[in-house]
Fold these 2 entries.
Entry 1:
Amino acid sequence: MPTDSPSAPAQPARVLSGIQPTGRFHWGNYFGAIRQYIELQAAGDAYYFIADLHALTTVREPDRLRSFVHDAAVDLLALGLDPARATLFVQSDVPEVTELTWLLMTVCPMGLLERCHAYKDKKTRGLPADAGLFAYPVLMSADILAYDATLVPVGEDQVQHIEVCRDLAGSFNHLYGDVFTLPAPRLVAGGGRVPGTDGQKMSKSYHNTIEVFEELPAQKKKIMRITTDSRPVEEPKDPDDDHLFALYSLMADEADVQRMAELYRRGGFGYGEVKKALVEAADAFFADARARRAELEADPERIAAVLTDGAARAREQAGRVLMRARQACGLTPAGRQS
Ligand code: ADP
Ligand code: TRP
């Protein structure tokens, strides 16, 4: 059956996303990104990678980078990433991507990168920016195009980079023929903006994070210190306008969330009670993942095997796309296989 026939089955999505190993994962990373990546394993062929080349623009201590990469792999597996269904690998294990970055760089207008926010923000604040940060969206484009990805789940802050990717793929295809598959962003739904301990967006840069696998006593301390307003206990409150409630509702059972919302509307409760309930809800929500994490941490060979296998699968795919690109632009004679 021809593939353009109206009754042809839709191609399954090729899902791809990357996450930077710039620290331990926090609740914002989990509810805003990782949870959706894991759900999308079922949507088709999925590729997830630990973006260590991107992290190099901020993490300058080799030991820290190594341990963040290791922890990211263990955390993702503990949180439900299944290597039998998704390919998990480390970005720098696929050198084809850096070569592809160069090919894309040659069709990338300076102005396009000057408008990208990571670089623009630094420049506006008068901070020094290196060429790595400037070219970051080109590396990210190569990450996506190397795997013929069709669907890229990302947070809102990354949508601009997917647009850059589509632009570069379009320019390359226009010059050299149909080489790259154009991807679409998939805004991660559900997590929204997870608040931090001070009510602002949870982010490493604001020092207001609660880490997913933080030791429980330390985590409890942080939760008990979440900022709250000074309204009296008896006053009824709007649950939808409270960051403590927002965190609680991410982790508690639906019935408990309803009960807590009632309590807010009725008044007559202290924020301390809500914090205690949040400690318990978080503990229960991540209990299985914590147990899996402990098992994985005790088996470093298993982690190494998953990443080695992931890199081999990723390289095979990226190698095919790179060869297509090299032949199209005249670097490799047409028809050569490797
Ligand atoms: P940080 O701001 O702590 O440095 P990153 O920028 O590394 O976090 O975020 C990695 C991913 O997690 C991104 O896709 C981002 O959209 C998501 N994310 C981070 N913080 C939050 C948050 N507070 N709420 C929702 N999503 C978040
Ligand atoms: N830049 C992304 C972030 O900071 C991480 C990333 C790198 C990525 N390459 C990617 C995400 C490719 C999606 C696709 O969150």
Entry 2:
Amino acid sequence: MSRRKIVAGNWKMNLEAQAAGQLADDIIANAEKEKVSDDVELILIPPFPYLDFVGSKLKGVNIRYGAQDCSAHEEGAFTGEVSATMICSIGAKFILVGHSERRKYFNESAELLIEKMNKVLATIGTPIFCCGESIEDRKSNNHFSVVESQISDVVLELKKSDAEKIIIAYEPVWAIGTGETASPEQAQEMHAFIRDLIEKKFGKVLAKNLPILYGGSVNEKNAADLFKQDDVDGGLVGGASLKAASFIAIAKSF
Ligand code: PEP
């Protein structure tokens, strides 16, 4: 059986409202014009203020949407926070958890990420759990042990019935927004390693079905070679997701 193929666009903290609406419109038009296969799941991940209006543009279109983060709390006096329940209640079905920018700039710890994962999993939403090593970890040959800790501290703590609902994104920090991409071999090697960790804990079937996306300077030129790898099931795309034509070209790279 073949796994899901997924291309998700993380818009990060970019675009004013008018430009965000235009980008969503252009992606919808391009996906139709370029006849992106129904086998490929497209996910748009805009900033919070645009979630609802981007979502309203996607009604009746085979593209889904999600949020870049959620609160570790359920509800109440947490000014500025947005809960997983709120996000899912407007129809957004995916939530990034543990993006390296949140780990780095907001000091998100494994304990916090477990809370967030559990909040998303208590809804009908799907967490996209991000992991990946820094350049120092890679240079000192610690990349496998760093990613192993990130996975075991959070994902391997989940119940099996929850683990089967998640998506993992391997995003080497040195490749995010730098224009430097992991080679297809480096991506494959790490994806196979992650799948093996999942299999040891949750068994063959769950591991075999788990989508593992690659993220880090994916573009229309390198996507095909990355997506050809056995254990690479698609991409989490930052910069190139802000250009409709590039994002759709990536979606057509399977
Ligand atoms: C990301 O933010 O998840 C990402 C992979 O960004 P970029 O594609 O710009 O490297």
